[in-house]
Structure formats: structure tokens, C-alpha cells
From TrEMBL, chain A:
Its main location: nucleus. This is Uncharacterized protein. One of its GO terms (molecular function) is DNA-directed RNA polymerase activity. The keyword Nucleus applies. Keywords: Nucleus. One of its GO terms (cellular component) is RNA polymerase I complex. PANTHER family: DNA-DIRECTED RNA POLYMERASES I, II, AND III SUBUNIT RPABC3 (PTHR10917:SF0). One of its GO terms (biological process) is DNA-templated transcription.
TrEMBL record, chain B:
It is found in: Nucleus. The keyword Cell wall biogenesis/degradation does not apply. InterPro entries: RNA_pol_asu, RNA_pol_N, RNA_pol_Rpb1_1, RNA_pol_Rpb1_3, RNA_pol_Rpb1_3_sf, RNA_pol_Rpb1_4, RNA_pol_Rpb1_5, RNA_pol_Rpb1_clamp_domain. Pfam families: RNA_pol_Rpb1_1, RNA_pol_Rpb1_2, RNA_pol_Rpb1_3, RNA_pol_Rpb1_4, RNA_pol_Rpb1_5. This is DNA-directed RNA polymerase subunit. SUPFAM superfamilies: beta and beta-prime subunits of DNA dependent RNA-polymerase. Belongs to the RNA polymerase beta' chain family. DNA-dependent RNA polymerase catalyzes the transcription of DNA into RNA using the four ribonucleoside triphosphates as substrates. Gene3D superfamilies: 1.10.132.30, 1.10.150.390, 2.40.40.20, 6.10.250.2940, 6.20.50.80, RNA polymerase ii, RNA polymerase II, clamp domain, RNA polymerase Rpb1, domain 3.
Length: 145, 1389
């Protein structure tokens, strides 16, 4: 079984907080229920439309294979069964930055991932960031609830 | 005149001994001498006295000007001296004996100077014995330089000239009274004026004359010195006295007695069809001289009346003068010919087309081509496409080896007209076979190894490519040839920048190096790959432009997605389908497989996993919103991590030229030139092909404003107009609150300008916001490929204010700009505000104003090119021979040290990575190391204290010490950076509630992991970082031999051409202008004594208080008595008449000036015009004084009083005379004073001014006040400031070098003809610069010896110069190896 790096249900709070800049891509702001994580994510809304108020499950996984074999880095498409089958929207990207924000008890960790230019910012308690490493390749899987 | 230096042989042999040939000889030095008449005769082959050229049989006349003993006159004749034919004979001199001597024009000034210094009776120098010996000792000092000698001579001349008081110099020995020597009225005549001599016979004469009738006219006793008299005087001069006047040879050689007739080859006779011939100017002039000479001889021999003799002598004088310098002044009218001016020797030498600049310093070359250029993105950046037609003419001599014999055989068979062919075959015996006719097949078959075939150019040959104006070294670079059809030279657009080329019809030149050595050197030193960066500041110059930027910008947009087919196709665009490409995992896997455009860029940079290029960089693009770094909503933050494009839309800042942190710069620095070049090639191909399919064009609909825009525009324009009307209204009422240092009109102008600029900005902003993102002009301006937001808004919204000379449109009519407006109208429209856009069209008046602005731009560019061109030339001449030597010093050609360590750290400006000329960009390097050296499970993160320990250990090693070649500045830079990182780690750990200094044992601690991920560093990373920094720093040392002077000159000269007409600039305060741009650079470089806007920036001792600043200002600004006096009245009492001055003490106190009657009295006494004495100014009370007229003459008393009354208000009672005004300036919360005017010394001395922190922008004044080092710093600062205010960054090392060259002689020397003459010793170099003839003549008089070591001299002599690769001198000891005797020693010997 795959170890997810992160899994939670998010509620979309805002679409395009800074105004719509791109035709096909929108930036969503969302907040998770379980870990109270804050997320910004660029989503290709042309093929996967989202609206404020939508609830979705988001999973970050290191590989798509069901048995947990690590991702090779090469893309080999094929009809094999994979984790993606259960989800509606899957992206692949790379973790490029981890930074801290605030101080004391309110300290938050920010995790930045780029999915080929579509960016994700995940902000929350440091305890949730233990599984993440720099330069990690990971998959983002989404499914509306 | 010139003679090759050779060792004077000590022993004379009866028979010339056999001397072995020592190999090629080299001209080491050159000596300038004067030639005497007998020497001329000796070296000549024939005497010339016949003025005719040819006899009736068309043969040269014996002893005529074309005598065949001086060389063959035509192609068919032979030389009678050496029997060579037209091509072989070098030519031989003839001589022409003058009946009477004449002055030499070139030496005329010297002759007068000598006459000034010698006694006209006994020919001794007019110096007392002691002084003479003193000077002699000075001249004989071996250390004395040419410059000093000339200064002594000048002093002696001054000393010997009759001073104004005595007007006569009496020389002790013979007692003759010498008068003034000066040039007589007519051409080339010398007068000796003894009329002012007092005493002696002259006085008697005068007194006699006084009694006679003609007493009115003063007696003029003026002798005219003719050449014969001067000659006899000179002959009697002692050698010792010559030495004192710096004359190397006998002075009589300065007077022409015989003329050397030059060989026929240098004055060719061209036969014309009608049996006559066209003779050279020199020949005709010589014939005139011969004729004139004959006439004189006749009259001297008594054949002709002797009265004509003097006239003829004058004529001969003029003719000989014109023969040497046809532009000689003062030629009598009857001798001036209206026909075209002839060319004398001086004219042949001087000027741009003259021998020195036109033939010796620059020569015509073969194997060159020139044609129109056009772009071809499919070529590599190192290539140039050469048309086949051109390749068939330009050849390369390839030597046949067994490897290329077959190829060359085919070439020979193809011959001249079939590509790839060959034009000639050179045989080892020196014969040349032409391949245009003859049996080519046979020649091809007979080719042997060692033959040389001049084959056509082929792909891969090395050529030099150049575009004029060649302003910097990147204007000529070496490319590899690609022979292609059609008729243009083509190259990759990425290389447009260094050449400054575009394709609107530009032509470029091509040269083909003809030897392997030349090719290698060209490839290594001038190759495009090795010149990606400019040495001006280390920025990249060869980079993507125009379409490449546009397409990259569009491809990397956040919402470009490609499916598998499209993505694969685009991947194949990048190369020639020969490279292996690994397809990355798509960014979107579900619901559809989609790749983003950014992934395409990741592929472009690292196509396959085998390629080990890990690019790491961050760039802030133009559209970066300044918040959130990578999360920027406009996607303006470019981040590459390990060759993956994480975020950001690529534009000019990343891909374009002129940056140091862009993609190609980083590739070049972190990897190599090849990586950068290959990436540029891929980008060029991809973008050209992609944009061809995608399409990108511009049309009228792109510049159509929408309704919203129109509305907002008219609103803002209306608001602006209203504001302006209000301001004008206020101005008319006189209620305008004045700006500091301005009057009402200036305030109004500056305010209106502000309002109108604001209007344009607002409309521009609205316009940019309203446009759709697909708008082509918008895309182009955003990505930086072409155009600015201003250009767009001018097209769509509003053209804006037109300015002429930095102001609004001037009044061309009485009180108005155009007759369409009412008089004195100051409304925006009447003063050149264009409210329309180019789309809507301009109204008639607007159009007119627009042309006014446009014309100014055109005129400015036209004027500027000439000005900067001359500036560059002067800079180049002054700096050309400076180079870095292997000990790190910068020296000139004669070995004089200009800098002890180049740029204070010995770094190469071309390789500086950081901003402001620092060697490394540590932030980027740190990021790269952290990304490329990922922490593995085995590596451990370091605690802050451990990091510090490692740093200290590493930085104390030898290669981080000054002895090890590391500057203190770099060490500090590195240390500061690392401490900053450590501090950041500490902060992170503190915020995460971890122990600051030691890492806990518990590895699994979540917070530990987080803190490590956030800002931790492993020992491996730290080690790699330190090693990379240090080793890279040491590699950036400048190479020995680098021609750093020439590079510096180009680096300062080239930006000059780009300076726009922004001539003025406000120095913090409105209305305080300072000159900028080319005029300012010129002032600095010329070391001008008087500059147009001298400004002293005075730091105040108490800089936080306005009041104290005002007090100091009051002390600096001049206050005249009229301003502080309550009244200045004439009072007449019965006894005395005086002018009474009452001071306005209230006003004085209000202004906080310390003035009272006593100080005023002092000031009045110091005033130059009053001529008052102490007793004339009487202080009555501390605020009252009276001034008595100096001459109590009753007749003039009234006048005196009134003059006093008019003068007194002008008396400066306080402040500095030379200061125009002082303005208080607030800068970063601190006040300082900007003083407009000169006299730094006085400003520094004003109480309240911190003298040690007071600066002036006047270089010469700084030198006088603070000394040479301060002047040097001032030059550096001023050039940097001027360049900086035009947005140009130039490495400070270049400016340091320039400042050092200007100051290293101990005084500030301008880069002008006077300054350069003082810097350089070489006559040839100076002659090739300016005033060619003067320098040569003076050199001959003083017998200068020129070492051939500078750049100019070496070029003139055709010798490799001692700069760059020429600095190498390999000495090899060729001792005979000792012969070993391997046999056992013979026992019996």
C-alpha cells in the first residue's frame, strides 16, 4: 500500500484571489478540515472546473503505483492500474522549497510544489511537514467530495 | 629623417668581415635627425637642375626631375642606378642645390626660438654664465625626461626674451644690445626689433631725430634677418649652447641649402594620351623651384639685373615652403593660385587619409567580402552563412597532406567556377598555377604533399566578421563559415547585439585569415563563444532577442498546455532531430495528459538525463508583482531548480542581453560557453519554428482603444488641464507658492510639467490594464522584445508632452509658440502637449510640436556620433598601450607603472558575476550548491557553531590571504555572506523552538527535519560551496598581457554613443541642473578648467537641523551691502563729504548673519575697485559707518561720491564671490548644501561645513584644493555618476584605469592632444594622433629616439606588438648537452 505524504479534505474558499490572470488556469485558495492547512493551488480549470465552496479530497503521494514502488522519474504510460484511477485530477510535480513563517507557537511551515509551473503552496503546522523533503517528486491527486 | 639604429662598430676593417646571418632583424628603435645639405648630396644619385621632364623622344631628361637615375619614370623604363625595372627599383634620391639658402617651414618656429636666445652679434646664448651652467647640468642629467627638457627650453626662451620693462637684453661678452625677435609680416621672414632699446647709439639717434622735422614718428630700427645671415649666426653657435636649446644636431641644418629630390616612384608621372604627361604636385613644385633657382643664379652671376634677385629669393622661399607644407600661411597674393590646392609633404602625411592614419596605421587587405546581412535562426550562433559566389572568391591556402589530398584534388579539378573548387595551386618552388585555364585534371593528378591549394571556402573555415562602427572588440568576431546559396551573409539573430546590427539593409564585412596560426588565434580569442560577455561590465551580450523572447514568453505562459503530439513535435523543433530527448512526466496526468510550456523549457535546457547541466537561478522579470516570490500572481518570478523551470514567465530579464543573472549568463558561468551557446542554438531554432506556426503579427485593431479607455483618458486629460489652468491662474495672480531656488515662472513650468507627465502616466497605466493579454504590442512590451509601455500608450491613448531642450515647446513667435494660440498662453495645448494618440491622429498644431521634438532627436544623434567618435579615438590613443603584466601591474609600453594592481584586485571585468563588479554572486552560488548537492541520508546537517568553525578553518588557508592572491574585499564579502547564512539558520532554529547552537541527537525530531529543510546546510554542501567560491575566484584573475587599456577605452567610449539627449538632470532640487551625457563625459575626460555646472556638495557639521543649514547657507551665499543696508546716502557737511551707510540690523539678525559695521568696513576695503585706504572708512557705531572719498580733489569730489555710492551696494559683505547660490537639500532625512559655483577651499572653510566630507564635481578644482589622489577619486566618481544616471553600468576598474592614466604623471592631464603629448614619449604615436607634422619636425630638431614598443609604433612598423599574446617571450637555453662517455675509462691514458 502507498504511504501518502499528505491527505486531507479541503474546502475551496476563493477562486483567483488576485484577479483572473490566465484563461485556462485559476488559482484556488482552500482550507483543510482535518489539519487546518491553508493551500493555494493553480488548477487547470478548463479541464477541471472548480467553484468556491467546492469540497475535495487532496492527496500528495510519492508514486502512483498501488504497491508503493517508487516512481522512476521517467514517464511510462500504460494501461496499468494505478492510484490515479480513484481520482479525477492528477498532477505531477516537484517540491522545491520549504520555509517557515511566524514564530513561537504560531510557527507555520510553508511547502512549495511546482507542477510544471502550476504552483502549490501548503501552509500549516510543522508536524505535517515531516514527510516532505526538498526535490521530492510527488503526485497531487484530487477528487471532489 | 629616419634611420635604423645599428651598433656603431668599434673596429674598422679594411675588408668587410663575413658576418653570419642572425635571422630576421627587427626594428628596435628609430631616430629622428636633421639632414645637412652635404648629407643630402652624398645620399643622392643625381643632381637635378633641369626643370623639364621629357625630351622630344619621350625619354626623361638628364638632370631633369624624372632623370632615370632616380628610378624608372614609366613601366617600360629601367633604373639607371640599380638597373632594376619599374617593380624592382626602390627609387633613388636626387639633389637640388639652391643658389641661396631659405628657411624650412617646419623648423621656422624653432629658428625664431633659437634667434631669440642667442646674441645676434656673437651667437652665444643670452644667459649669464652661472645660469647657463646650471641649465647645462640639468640637461645633462641622465634622468631628465623629454617633457622636462621641453619645459626647460621654454623657460630659457622666456628668460632670454626681452622683458616688458627693459625691452633689451645685453650680453656680457660682446656688449651687443639685443632687441626683440619676431616673425616679420610676410611669409617666413624674421625681424629683429631694436627700437625699444634704451641708451647707447640708439638714444643718440633718437635725440638727433627729435630735433629734426620728423620728430613725430618713432624710430623703427628693425632689421630683417635673411636666411644667409641666420645661417652664419647658426654656424657660429657653440655646441654647448645648442644643447641648452635641446637641439641635437647643428642648428645650421635647420636652414635649407639643398633639397633632396624624392625618387620618381613617390611622385609618379602618368602619361596621358596626347603625348603629354600628368605630373605629380611634388614634381611640378620642384620644377618651379628649379626655375626660380636658375633665375637667382643668373642674377647672382650678373647675367640678370641684381635687383630682381631679392624678389626671386622671396619667391624661392615661398616655393620651397609650399613644397613642404602647401598650407603655409601668409603667401603673398600674387603667388596664390586659384586652382585646386597642391599637396605638399605635410599634407601627404597628415589627416585621416594621410600616410600616418591612412596607410601606416591602417592598411588595405585582401581576402575580404562585404554584402547585405540577413537573419537565419537555423544557424548556430558561431556560424555565418557565406554566399557561394563569395566563397568562390575568398580562398584559403590549404597545405596538402595525405589526409586531405583527395578532397583538394577534387577542388582543383572543379577549378574556379565550380564550388567547391580552387583558384590557385602554389608549388613549393614558389610558382603559382592559375586554375582558371590550363589542364586542371593534370594539375590535380600531379598534386603532391607539401603543395598548397588555394581552395574555396568550405563549411567550418574560420572567418572574421565585422560591422562598422567597430566600437568595441565584439564588433569583430570570428565565426565558422557555412557556405550557402543566395547572396546575403546570414547569422543567428542572437549575435545582433554585439555588432549592433539589424537587417534593414545593413552590410557587414568578412575577412578570411590565411594561416593556421591566424585561424587558431582568431578562434581562441575572437570566437563568438569566447566573447559572449562584454568586458565593459561582465554582462552577457550574445543573447536572445526579439522573436526569441516573444515566443519564449508565450510558451512559458502559465496556461499553455500541450498534448503528447504537440509537445513531442515542439521537442523535435529544438534540434536537428539528432539529439536524444527524454520526455518528462506530464504535469497533468488526469483527466488528460498535458504538458505545460514550462516543461518544454526544462527540456530545452536539459534535453536528456545524460546531460549534466543543472541550472539554478532566480530572476525577477518585468511583470513581477514584488510579492510572494514564486507565488507571484502574474507569474513574474522565474525560478529554475536543477534545470527545471519551477515558476515564472520568461522574458528579457532571463533570456535577454545586458544582465548577469540571466539563464545564459548562469550557464556560461556555472558550466561553459559551449553549454550557453548550445542552449541559445536550441532556443533560436525552437522559437523560430514555433512562432512560424503560432503566428504573431500586429494590426490596426491592436491599437484601437476601447470605450472605457477613451472615457478614462478624456477624464484624466480634462482633470490635468483643469489643474494646469488653476496653476496658471494662481501664477497670474502671483499667489503661486515658490519651490526652493525657483522663481514664479520656473515653479509654474515645473509644476505644469509634473501635472502633464502625470496625465500621460495615468493614461498609460489605464491603457496597459485595459488591453487583452493577447494584444501583440502588449506582449512585446511585457517580454521586453520591443517597445515600452510609453510607446503603446502613445499609439493608443495619448502622445504626451513634446519637449525641446528639456523644456516645453519654446516660443517661435512673439510671446507664443504658434500663431494659433493667444499671446502668453501657457496652457498645455499651446506649449506642446499632444492629447491625441497616434491612432486618432494629431491635430495640426500637435503635429508641428511633434516635429519639433523629433527634429531635436535627429539633430542630437547626428551631432553626438561625431562627438563620441572623436572622444573614443582620443581615449584609445591615450590608453592603447596599457596592459597587465605577469606581476599584476598595469604598465605602458615603455614599462612605466600606471597601476600596481589592476583595479585594486586584479580581476577580469569580463568575468565578474555580481552586481557592481564584485567577483561572485554568492547568493546564487549558494542556492545552486544547495540544489545540486542534495542532502543524502548519510550526510549530517551542521549546527551553527560547527559551520562557523569550518568557515574559519577554510578562510585561514593560504589561498585566502593577500599573498595567496585574494583581495581583502572578497574575503570580507564571503565572510559576511556566510555569517548571514548562519544568522538565518539561528533564526530558523529559534522560531522552531530548537536549541540554537547544537543539533539534538534525536534525528527523528520532526522540527529538526523541518529546520534542516528550511535553512540547514550539510558539511558536504558547505565544503563544496567554499571550494567553488575560492577556486572560481582565483580563476577570474585577469590574464597577463591583457590589453586592458584598449578595453577600458572601448568600455567608456562605446556607451557614449548610446547616451540619449537627456542632457540635464536635477540634482535633488528642481531647477538645479547638472550637465550630463556626452557633454559631461567630455568635460571630465578633457580635464576642462571651466565646467558648465560646477556644484559643491557640502556636508554640514550639524545635518539634522534646517535652521543651522540656513545659517551656513547664509555664510556661503554672497550677500552684497545693498541687501543688508538700510540706507546708503551722500552726506555733505561743511567740513567733509562722505557716503554714510546704515545697516539694517533687524534684517541681518533675521537672516542670522554676523555682520556689523566693522566687518562691512573690512569688506569694503577688500573690494578691488574702490581703491580705498584704511583711513577712508570710518566706523561710527556698530551699525553705521561712513566712507570718505579717496581723493579730496574738489573738482572731482561729486563724481567720486557718486561712484562710491554706486559701488558700495555691490560690495560683498558676506559669502563667497564665486558662488552663484546655495540650496538646502534634504537627503534621507539629513540636510546638506548644494553649492552652485566654484571655490571649494572657501566652502570647506565655512564654519558649519564638514570640510572632510565636502565634495566638488570639478576635477581641476579638486586637484588644486585637495591634491592628485582626490582628483583621481573625483574623476572616478564623476564618470560613474554620469554613466549611472543614464542607466549604464560600467565596471569601476575601467574608470579607475582612466583616472589613473589621467593622473599618474602627478598632474591631471586631459585626454586631449596636449594631455596625450604629455603622457606619451613616442613621436610616431603622437604623429599618428594629431598635429602630425609638428611632432615630426620637433622630433627631428631635438633628435628624438623612438623605441618601437607601443601599439601605434608597432603597427606602423609592421612588428607584432608587446600586448596580449605578443607579451610572451620564450627564452630557451640551447646549451649543448654534455656528452657522456659510457665506455669504461681508459686505464692507460
Amino acid at each position: 500500500m502507498v504511504d501518502f505524504l499528505f491527505e486531507d479534505i479541503f474546502t475551496l474558499t476563493k477562486l483567483d484571489p488576485d484577479g483572473k490572470k490566465f484563461d485556462k488556469v485559476s488559482r484556488i485558495e482552500a482550507r483543510s478540515e482535518q489539519f487546518d492547512m491553508y493551500m493555494q493551488l493553480d488548477v487547470n480549470t478548463e479541464i477541471y472546473p472548480l467553484h468556491p465552496g467546492d469540497k475535495f479530497t487532496m492527496v500528495l503521494a510519492p508514486t502512483l503505483s498501488l504497491d508503493g514502488t517508487p516512481d522512476s522519474g521517467y514517464f511510462a504510460p500504460g494501461g496499468r492500474k494505478s492510484l490515479a484511477d480513484k481520482f479525477e485530477y492528477v498532477m505531477h510535480g516537484k517540491l522545491f522549497k520549504i520555509s517557515e513563517e511566524g514564530s513561537g507557537p504560531n510557527v507555520k511551515v510553508e511547502i512549495y510544489v511546482s507542477f510544471g509551473g502550476l504552483l502549490m503552496l501548503l501552509k500549516g503546522d510543522p508536524s505535517n511537514a515531516a514527510n516532505f523533503e526538498l526535490d521530492q517528486r510527488l503526485f497531487l491527486l484530487m477528487r471532489k467530495v | 629623417m629616419a634611420r635604423v639604429d645599428s651598433n656603431a662598430d668599434a673596429i674598422r676593417f679594411t675588408k668587410e668581415p663575413f658576418v653570419e646571418e642572425v635571422g630576421p632583424r627587427k626594428i628596435k628603435s628609430m631616430q629622428f635627425r636633421t639632414f645637412s645639405g652635404s648629407e643630402i648630396c652624398k645620399s643622392a644619385a643625381v643632381q637635378v637642375y633641369n626643370s623639364s621632364y621629357y625630351d622630344s623622344t619621350r625619354n626623361p631628361v638628364e638632370h631633369g626631375l624624372l632623370d632615370s637615375r632616380m628610378g624608372p619614370a614609366s613601366k617600360f623604363g629601367t633604373c639607371a642606378t640599380c638597373h632594376g625595372n619599374f617593380t624592382d627599383c626602390p627609387g633613388h634620391y636626387g639633389y637640388l642645390k639652391l643658389a641661396l639658402p631659405v628657411f624650412h617651414v617646419g623648423y621656422f618656429g624653432t629658428i625664431i626660438d633659437i634667434l631669440k636666445c642667442i646674441c645676434k652679434s656673437c651667437a652665444r646664448i643670452l644667459l649669464p654664465d652661472k645660469e647657463r651652467k646650471d641649465y647645462l647640468r640639468k640637461f645633462r642629467n641622465p634622468k631628465v625626461e623629454v617633457l622636462q627638457k621641453n619645459a626647460y627650453v621654454k623657460k630659457i626662451i622666456k628668460r632670454c626674451s626681452p622683458s616688458s620693462s627693459s625691452r633689451c637684453i645685453e650680453y656680457g661678452i660682446c656688449g651687443y644690445k639685443n632687441g626683440m625677435v619676431k616673425k616679420a609680416g610676410t611669409v617666413l621672414a624674421i625681424a629683429h626689433d631694436r627700437s625699444k632699446i634704451v641708451g647707447g647709439s640708439l638714444d643718440e639717434c633718437r635725440s638727433a631725430a627729435f630735433n629734426s622735422k620728423h620728430s613725430k614718428g618713432s624710430i623703427q630700427i628693425v632689421q630683417v634677418f635673411n636666411p644667409v645671415r641666420v645661417l652664419t649666426l647658426f654656424r657660429r653657435m657653440l655646441d654647448e649652447d645648442c644643447e641648452l636649446l635641446n637641439i641635437r644636431d647643428r642648428p645650421e641644418k635647420l636652414i635649407v641649402t639643398d633639397i633632396a629630390v624624392p625618387p620618381v616612384v613617390i611622385r609618379p608621372s602618368v602619361p596621358s594620351n596626347d603625348g603629354l604627361s600628368n605630373e605629380d604636385n611634388l614634381t611640378t613644385k620642384l620644377s618651379q623651384i628649379v626655375i626660380c633657382n636658375a633665375k637667382i643664379r643668373e642674377s647672382m652671376q650678373g647675367v640678370a639685373p641684381p635687383s630682381n634677385c631679392l624678389n626671386h629669393w622671396d619667391t624661392l622661399q615661398v616655393e620651397v615652403a609650399q613644397y613642404i607644407n602647401s598650407e603655409v600661411r601668409g603667401v603673398p597674393a600674387y603667388m596664390q593660385k586659384d586652382s585646386k590646392p597642391m599637396r605638399g609633404f605635410v599634407q601627404r602625411l597628415k589627416g585621416k587619409q594621410g600616410r600616418f592614419r591612412g596607410n601606416l596605421s591602417g592598411k588595405r587587405v585582401e581576402f575580404t567580402g562585404r554584402t547585405v546581412i540577413s537573419p537565419d535562426p537555423n544557424l548556430k550562433i558561431t556560424e555565418v552563412a557565406i554566399p557561394i559566389l563569395m566563397a568562390q572568391v575568398l580562398t584559403y591556402p590549404e597545405r596538402i597532406t595525405r589526409y586531405n589530398v583527395e578532397k583538394l584534388r577534387q577542388c582543383v579539378r572543379n577549378g574556379k567556377n565550380k564550388y567547391p573548387g580552387a583558384n590557385f595551386v602554389l608549388l613549393p618552388d614558389g610558382n603559382k598555377i592559375m586554375l582558371s585555364f590550363g589542364d586542371r585534371k593534370r594539375v590535380a593528378d600531379e598534386l603532391k604533399e607539401g603543395y598548397v591549394v588555394e581552395r574555396h571556402l568550405e563549411d567550418g573555415d574560420i572567418v572574421l566578421f565585422n560591422r562598422q562602427p567597430s566600437l568595441h572588440r565584439m564588433s569583430i568576431m570570428s565565426h565558422r563559415a557555412r557556405v550557402m546559396p543566395w547572396r546575403t551573409l546570414r547569422f543567428n539573430e542572437s549575435v545582433c547585439n554585439p555588432y549592433n546590427a539589424d537587417f534593414d539593409g545593413d552590410e557587414m564585412n568578412l575577412h578570411v585569415p590565411q594561416t593556421e596560426e591566424a585561424r587558431t588565434e582568431a578562434l581562441m580569442l575572437m570566437g563568438v563563444q569566447n566573447n559572449l560577455c562584454t568586458p565593459k561590465n561582465g554582462e552577457i551580450l550574445v543573447a536572445s532577442t526579439q522573436d526569441f523572447l516573444t515566443s519564449s514568453f508565450l510558451i512559458t505562459r502559465k496556461d499553455t498546455f500541450y498534448d503528447r503530439a504537440a509537445f513531442s513535435l515542439m521537442c523535435s523543433y529544438m534540434g536537428d532531430s539528432a539529439e536524444h530527448i527524454d520526455l518528462p512526466t506530464p504535469a497533468l496526468i488526469k483527466p488528460v495528459e498535458l504538458w505545460t510550456g514550462k516543461q518544454l523549457f526544462s527540456v530545452l535546457i536539459r534535453p536528456s538525463a545524460n546531460m549534466r547541466v543543472y541550472l539554478n537561478l532566480t530572476v525577477m522579470e518585468k511583470n513581477y508583482s514584488k510579492v510572494g516570490e514564486t507565488m507571484c500572481p502574474k507569474d513574474g518570478f522565474v525560478y529554475f531548480r536543477n534545470s527545471e523551470l519551477i515558476s515564472g514567465q520568461l522574458g528579457k530579464a532571463t533570456l535577454g542581453n545586458g544582465n548577469k543573472d540571466g539563464l545564459f549568463s548562469v550557464l556560461l558561468r556555472d558550466y561553459n560557453a559551449h553549454a550557453a551557446a548550445a542552449c541559445m542554438n536550441r532556443l533560436a531554432k525552437l522559437s523560430a519554428r514555433w512562432i512560424g506556426n503560432h503566428g504573431f503579427s500586429i494590426g490596426i485593431d491592436d491599437v484601437q482603444p476601447g470605450d472605457g479607455l477613451n472615457q478614462q483618458k478624456s477624464q484624466s486629460i480634462e482633470a490635468g488641464y483643469r489643474d494646469c489652468d488653476d496653476l496658471i491662474c494662481l501664477y497670474n495672480k502671483g499667489q503661486l507658492s515658490l519651490q526652493p531656488g525657483c522663481n514664479a515662472a520656473q515653479t509654474l513650468e515645473s509644476k505644469i510639467t509634473g501635472v502633464l507627465n502625470n496625465v500621460r502616466e495615468i493614461t498609460a497605466k489605464v491603457c496597459m490594464e485595459e488591453l487583452h493579454w493577447r494584444n501583440s504590442p502588449l506582449i512585446m512590451s511585457q517580454c521586453g522584445s520591443k517597445g515600452s509601455p510609453i510607446n503603446i500608450s502613445q499609439m493608443i491613448a495619448c502622445v504626451g508632452q513634446q519637449s525641446v531642450g528639456g523644456r516645453r515647446a519654446p516660443n517661435g513667435f512673439i510671446d507664443r509658440s504658434l500663431p494659433h494660440f493667444p499671446r502668453n498662453s501657457k496652457t498645455p495645448a499651446a506649449k506642446g502637449f499632444v492629447a491625441n494618440s497616434f491612432y486618432t491622429g494629431l491635430s495640426a498644431t500637435e503635429f508641428f510640436f511633434h516635429t519639433m521634438g523629433g527634429r531635436e532627436g535627429l539633430v542630437d544623434t547626428a551631432v553626438k556620433t561625431a562627438e563620441t567618435g572623436y572622444m573614443s579615438r582620443r581615449l584609445m590613443k591615450a590608453l592603447e598601450d596599457l596592459s597587465v603584466h605577469y606581476d599584476g601591474t598595469v604598465r605602458n609600453a615603455s614599462g612605466g607603472i600606471v597601476q600596481l594592481l589592476y583595479g585594486d584586485d586584479g580581476m577580469d571585468p569580463a568575468q565578474m558575476e555580481g552586481k557592481g563588479g564584485i567577483p561572485l554572486n554568492l547568493h546564487r552560488l549558494y542556492m545552486k550548491i544547495k540544489a545540486t548537492c542534495p542532502a543524502t541520508s548519510s550526510s549530517t546537517y551542521l549546527s551553527p557553531s560547527e559551520i562557523e568553525r569550518i568557515i574559519d578553518e577554510r578562510l585561514s588557508k593560504h589561498d585566502m590571504t593577500p599573498e595567496g592572491g585574494c583581495s581583502a574585499a572578497f574575503k570580507k564579502l564571503l565572510l559576511d555572506f556566510l555569517h548571514e547564512r548562519v544568522a538565518a539558520l539561528r533564526i530558523t532554529r529559534r522560531t522552531l523552538d530548537l536549541d540554537e547552537d547544537s543539533i539534538g541527537d534525536n534525528d527523528c525530531d520532526v522540527l529538526e527535519i523541518v529546520s534542516a529543510n528550511v535553512s540547514g546546510i550539510t558539511s558536504r554542501q558547505l565544503q563544496v560551496f567554499l571550494e567553488t567560491c575560492i577556486s572560481r575566484y582565483h580563476l577570474k584573475r585577469i590574464d597577463g598581457g591583457a590589453a586592458i587599456g584598449a578595453i577600458g577605452a572601448q568600455s567608456i567610449g562605446e556607451p557614449g554613443t548610446q547616451m540619449t539627449l537627456k542632457t540635464f538632470h536635477f540634482a535633488g532640487v528642481a531647477s538645479m541642473n547638472i550637465t550630463l551625457g556626452v557633454p559631461r563625459i567630455k568635460e571630465i575626460i578633457n580635464a576642462a578648467k571651466k565646467i558648465s555646472t560646477p556644484i559643491i556638495t557640502a556636508t554640514l557639521a550639524c545635518d539634522s537641523d534646517v535652521k543651522s543649514a540656513r545659517i551656513v547657507k547664509g555664510c556661503i551665499e554672497k550677500t552684497v551691502l545693498g541687501e543688508v543696508a538700510k540706507s546708503i546716502k551722500i552726506t555733505l557737511t561743511s567740513r567733509q563729504a562722505s557716503v554714510k551707510v546704515t545697516l539694517d540690523m533687524d534684517r541681518i539678525e533675521a537672516l542670522q548673519m554676523k555682520i556689523n559695521a566693522y566687518t562691512v568696513a573690512q569688506s569694503i576695503l577688500q573690494h578691488p575697485k574702490t581703491k580705498l585706504k584704511q583711513q577712508h572708512v570710518v566706523v561710527i557705531t556698530p551699525h553705521k559707518l561712513k566712507v570718505l572719498p579717496p581723493q579730496a580733489d574738489k573738482n572731482s569730489l561729486q563724481f567720486e561720491l557718486h561712484t562710491l555710492k554706486t559701488i558700495l551696494p555691490m560690495v560683498i559683505v558676506k559669502g563667497i564671490k564665486t558662488v552663484e547660490r546655495a540650496v538646502i537639500n534634504k537627503e534621507k532625512g539629513k540636510y546638506n548644501l548644494l553649492v552652485e559655483g566654484t571655490n571649494l577651499l572657501a566652502v570647506m572653510g565655512v564654519p558649519g561645513v564638514d570640510g572632510s566630507r565636502t565634495k566638488s564635481n570639478h576635477v581641476m578644482e579638486v586637484e588644486q584644493t585637495l591634491g592628485i589622489e582626490a582628483a583621481r577619486q573625483c574623476i572616478i566618481d564623476e564618470i560613474q555618476y554620469t554613466m549611472g544616471s543614464h542607466g549604464m553600468s560600467i565596471d569601476i576598474r575601467h574608470m579607475m584605469l582612466l583616472a589613473d592614466v589621467m593622473t599618474y604623471k602627478g598632474e591631471v592631464l586631459g585626454i586631449t592632444r596636449v594631455g596625450i603629448a604629455k603622457m606619451k614619449d613616442s613621436v610616431l604615436m603622437l604623429a599618428s594622433f594629431e598635429k602630425t607634422a609638428e611632432h615630426l619636425f620637433n622630433a627631428c630638431v631635438s633628435g628624438r629616439e623612438d623605441q618601437i614598443e607601443g601599439v601605434s609604433e608597432c603597427i606602423i612598423m609592421g612588428i607584432p606588438m608587446q600586448i596580449g599574446t605578443g607579451i610572451l617571450k620564450v627564452l630557451q637555453r640551447v646549451d649543448q648537452p654534455q656528452e657522456f662517455n659510457y665506455a669504461p675509462d681508459p686505464i692507460i691514458s
